């Protein structure tokens, strides 16, 4: 399967059919993959563009190429957003980002709940966002996603309760008895996922009052990052069962 | 929720209603959790036993206790076995073990396919098995499983094709168009999951000839360990949808 190379939109001139590749992607193409003049590569802007590009000039620090043809890959009709409590373990949060991206998440909102331990200062948030985006980009490259998941700035639990624009808003919680039969096809779903200590009972109560549906993820306890990736896996599995995988990605 | 402590069967004398706790579990109980005489703890043999034990003597290197009451947790009616290609990355294989355990796998068979890079000598296999078992035990402790997943010795792909005793045998493969509508409730399922390079086309062909059902896991490429954990997640999701979570664990 063809490798996919991610360029920022300002590097892609669709009108003049030109691209310029610099930085990490340049390094990867020229030094690792040893691509050169005449080779054809596939690029995306991570926002649905799929373009085949012929390399025309391979310099010391940049590649220039011409777009042979391009198309827009439609955004999947089913979209999963996970508002995920930040975790004490960076490693486990990164793991969630990687697996959720592979499994098809659309948008991730780091969340601060009453039991969230990690609550970094704004300067640290910026650095974290950069790292999170690089993890999601690496995972997108791995699974060749034309739509890279969005990562938004951290939200508070109370702000998460007020998020609008979703067809179905869910809060998985171990005390819930409702099993998770959710109509997913073509819908916009929002899951709130708690951190290492789960949600406080008061939070589950508030979420239910705000119209969130409490769902059970099963009898055994899932770690926070596993609950997050299971939410995405559950939707992927339901779409596959409906024979509707291209609704997905 | 009560912590669960795992003892090897020879430490548990159900007739005399006595247990002896040594080694890591002793250390964890006495040094980390600071349990002492009179405290009641919950133990399992990892094979379905659930017993509440009162600590009667806490020595320098062992704890002795008496069993207050015990019951047998029935083995779940639905059982997922994953024959999983060994991976070049130990880290990613361990990750698969941890997540599959949390999500409810019953049995794991490391597998050697034509594209499996890791093919350790027998002495190394023994060491690997020890580590794999400790990963699975740690994950079982985390999610409080009374039935610890089995890890068998590595099998060849050809031996995996001949495995009997399953109601449904599946091989996920990206070239497959069949979506994964599988009847799971109360059934014994076997999935073959390829390694970093996936299966060779010949292997998919042989599996189909041997009666395995090729299934698609979706349009985007999943890493090997993600495919393995997704197989388990898919079954968990299907059981939840059928309102049948206690068939699970």
For the CA atoms, what is the radius of gyration of chain A?
Answer: 20 Å
Write the H/E string of chain A, N to C.
EEEHEEEEHEHEEHEEHEH
The CATH H-level superfamily of the largest domain in chain A is: SPOUT methyltransferase, trefoil knot domain
For the report, how would you describe the main beta sheet of chain A? Answer: 7 strands, parallel
Total number of distinct structural domains of chain A: 2
Would you identify the regions of chain A where 5 or more consecutive residues have pLDDT less than 50? none
What's the multimeric state? homodimer
Helical amount of chain A = 25-40%
Mean pLDDT, all residues of chain A: 92
The first-level CATH class name of the largest domain in chain A: Alpha Beta
Strand content of chain A: 25-35%
Main traits of this protein?
7-stranded parallel sheet; elongated; 2 domains; 249 residues; Ribosomal Protein L25, Chain P; Alpha/beta knot; 6-stranded mixed sheet; alpha/beta; homodimer
